[in-house]
Design goal:
Blueprint lengths: L1 H9 L11 E6 L6 H9 L4 E8 L3 H9 L6 E6 L4 H5 L4 E4 L15 H18 L4 E4 L4 H14 L8 E3 L2 H15 L10 E3 L6 E3 L12 H12 L1 H8 L8 H18 L6 E7 L7 E9 L2 E5 L7 H26 L4
Parallel strand pairs: 1-2, 1-4, 2-3, 4-5, 5-6
Antiparallel strand pairs: 7-8, 9-10, 10-11
Helix pairs in contact: 2-10, 5-6, 6-11, 7-8, 7-10
Length: 336
């Protein structure tokens, strides 16, 4: 009952007429994010085949999920030799693969391990499903998205419409924290979060929040700081046993279902995402994105910002530029 409730909460706005079955692959499906993500996705009538890939345990995860009485057929694929089978014919790829953040570890600390994982998986996608829409969840997103883009460029299959960095967790957190402060239903709260997906690059546009957020300056700064450091809050609370896996799985599912609804022809769907962008002088930036059948339909601007928000954007750009450059340099030395 709980799982069906979660799916109903995630799929609000899904019309019966818009339901179109899509083939989805999850790379890193046995991990802390991958398993709950796959469970939530299994419930969607928009998915016809759910292919699960990891380097361990995927046959068991797939067998477990295949006993759920929903539409999607589940297949499990184990190890590099079976990666091609997991990707063949897929239309949407979600990549949560990678190591989780531990206490004292920054997202940059994850780079050396996760960069290689993402590069290898994206390279395989270029071979087996070059036209698939790719959604990068693996951190640090500010670097892994540029890595993915550069690998796809090297392979001659890069399409900026079909590459997303999933930053939805920042929006989910902002909505939850604002709802907590205002004492309202979180489903009625909408806070755009722009910039990137790490620390000070996470910029909640509270001036554009619905309903309106009106707090004293010190309380506003505390709220912004909590949104920016929410990942660390979870890492500390788990005391070394993990990072934000369940909330990330929820947020990843929310983004995936929004994308699938748009691919099925539903209009007017927007999500904030870290994508190829020209709204700043950086090549990638997270902002509201209109989703369509091919992925990115339109990258929207930032709207009217307060003086404080303008300052936050400018301060974030330096760190973002460094993270993007780091990813691009890594990809340049990666052997496809």
């Amino acid at each position: 009952m709980f799982c069906r409730f979660v799916f109903l909460r995630l799929s609000r706005g899904l019309s019966t007429s818009a339901r179109h079955a899509t083939r989805v692959s999850v790379l890193g499906a046995s991990g802390g994010i991958g398993q709950p993500l796959s469970l939530l996705l299994k419930q969607s009538p928009l998915i016809s085949r759910l292919a699960l890939y990891d380097i361990a345990h995927t046959p068991g995860v797939a067998a477990d999920l295949s006993h759920i009485d929903t539409r999607a057929t589940v297949t499990g694929h184990l190890g590099p030799d079976q990666l091609g089978d997991a990707l063949k014919g897929t239309e949407v790829v979600l990549i949560p693969a990678g190591v989780p953040r531990k206490p004292g570890m920054t997202r940059d600390d994850l780079f050396n391990i996760n960069a290689s994982i993402v590069a290898s998986l994206v390279n395989a996608c270029a071979s087996h499903c070059p036209t698939a829409i790719m959604c990068i969840i693996a951190n640090p997103v500010n670097s892994t998205v540029p890595i993915a883009a550069e690998i796809l460029k090297q392979r001659g299959v890069f399409d900026p419409q079909r590459l997303f960095g999933v930053t939805t967790l920042d929006v989910v957190r902002a909505n939850a924290f604002v709802a907590e402060i205002k004492g309202v239903d979180p489903s009625q709260v909408s806070v755009p979060v722009v910039g990137g997906h790490a620390g000070k690059t996470i910029i909640p546009l509270l001036s554009q929040a619905k309903p309106h957020v009106d707090l004293p300056q010190d309380k506003m700064e505390q709220l912004i700081s909590r949104i920016q450091e929410a990942g660390t809050e979870v890492v500390k609370a788990k005391a070394g046993s993990g990072s934000a896996t369940l909330s990330m799985a929820y947020a990843g599912t929310r983004f995936a279902l929004s994308l699938l609804r748009a691919m099925a022809g539903e209009s007017g769907i927007k999500e904030c995402s870290f994508v190829s962008s020209t709204i700043t002088d950086l090549p990638y930036f997270s902002s509201p994105v209109q989703l369509g059948k091919q992925g990115v339909q339109k990258v929207e601007g930032l709207g009217k910002l307060t003086v404080q928000e303008e300052k936050m954007v400018e301060e974030a750009k330096g760190e973002l530029a460094g993270s993007i450059s780091k990813g691009e340099k890594f990809a340049a030395n990666f052997e496809c």
